[in-house]
Queue: 4 jobs
Job 1
Amino acid sequence: MDIQFVGLPSDKVAQVRATGRDDYGLAVEVDTSNGDAWPCRHCLGETPHGEAYLTLAWKPFQGTNAYTETGPLFLCASGCEAAKPSSAVPAILRSDQYLVRGYTGDERILYGTGRVVATAGIADYAKSLLENPEIAFVDIRSAANNCYQCRVVRA
């Protein structure tokens, strides 16, 4: 089975940029990159030094239920290009480990799937989760701060 890492949907990102509001309706924070890590979850690249980035709350789900977590993330403030779906682990995933968890089609955590995984093992673990027909997608979050990173789907 082939898998793809995907960034945030362009239509929802454009809405955040246009309205300046996050998933709680709060004003997004705007700052300027100093060259440190400000990874954009849309282009799956770093916000370039000297460029503006947004900090906001993001709910990566269509519906709302007890499992629809919201987490902080960064976006390039300008209209960056969406990341092309890829089987390669995105370069922005450079911490030692991440929380990787499978979700069902009704956007609920499939218990027993959540695991802190070494970055080098993320693709293999996500692929093994997606071999289970109950799992619709896999989300990757920071193991330390619960920030949403990206989603993994079947190719």
Job 2
Amino acid sequence: MTEEDAGWQRLDRFLFFARFCKTRDVAGELVAAGGVRINRQPVEKAHARVRVGDVLTLALPRGVLVVEVLGLALRREGAAQAQQLYREIAVS
């Protein structure tokens, strides 16, 4: 059992598994550029911990997206499975 099995996952892995980024390297670059917040707190490290219930704010090329984490994956799956990992929150 790894530490990640204890209810958290690295941010770069979550972004890759949930299909927000094409690779973990791209996810790491997004985080390093200041494009991600967890629960409104800026994140600077790709190894930040993501837990179910966290709210992520993502500054993606297509626009800002706010999502709630609903689940964690063990590997990258298809788009339908990836969409079950999060719920979009409408930004007003």
Job 3
Amino acid sequence: MSQAFVTEIERICAEVLSPLVEGDGGELWLVSVSTTAIHLHLSGMCSGCPGATLTHDHFVVPAFRVFAPTTPVRTTTGALIPGGARRMRVGSARA
């Protein structure tokens, strides 16, 4: 897996998805990223929200499809943040 792949996933999370999630009072966490899977976690107001499935299906997955069309995306929710997760927000992507 290239650093460019990771950097682009982080940029999509920070600049595209995080503002949408934060607009609803939630927090977006990047749990893990590889060429075989991307794992995100939603917390805050998104924790356990039934709308999280819609967020995953209509915002998260389409955001990655142009750059990583075959990489599965997993989105979990809850108050407990998975170990090693990094909070994504504008400006948090690595340069």
Job 4
Amino acid sequence: MSALFEELDYCPTPIGAVSLRRRRDLKLDVDVFEIRLGDESLMTSLFTASEIALARRGLAALGTAAKPDVVVGGLGLGYTAHAVLEASAGASLIVVEALAPVIEWHQSGVLPLGTAIANDPRCQLVQGDFFAMAASDEGFDPQAPGRQLDAILVDIDHSPEALLDERSESFYRTDGLRRLARHLRPGGVFGLWSDALPDESFLARLGSVFAEARAEPVTFHNPLQDRPFTQTVYLARAYEKPAS
């Protein structure tokens, strides 16, 4: 049996101390991995349905793109990135992660997915500020500044209103979404994970920037509370031609 609790790593970062913890849930008889920023939980391996749904639904919204170029903002435990690679054999993936220790955990194989993401030749792990990249002209690919993508999928903040760092607030406003949309090819897809129920005001901002926008609830069973729990995936499609 695993130890009941273990702190696998603890590192200071510019936005606070990040830690990786593993605990044994005796009721469920599983090891649970958790990433925390200070006292705040960022991600747990116990609930991954909506992170996986972000990838699968985002790629499905692309339709016939056989070899999509994809950016995932936020690496975490890796479930969104891994789902992209599983869903499309021809995908090219860049994962932007601000915290160096998180990238190192994937490279060392200490997480549940091991080194599957770090060792996949289709995937490039980039340490950087996703929100600054989204606002820039250069975009997300350090080797090809200005490169446009088929899909940009984001799982960083808890929701458009519950932020890990107040500096990301402008990303969720109309001007920030317009800057992001420049990095999508015509008809490309923007997807966003949220821990909250659909936010009509954010959905309206998406609709003012993109040709199509919708919020899709993702409901799954919460074994700790023994009841359904709902999170949200936002999906938006860029205009086929630049908006006039």
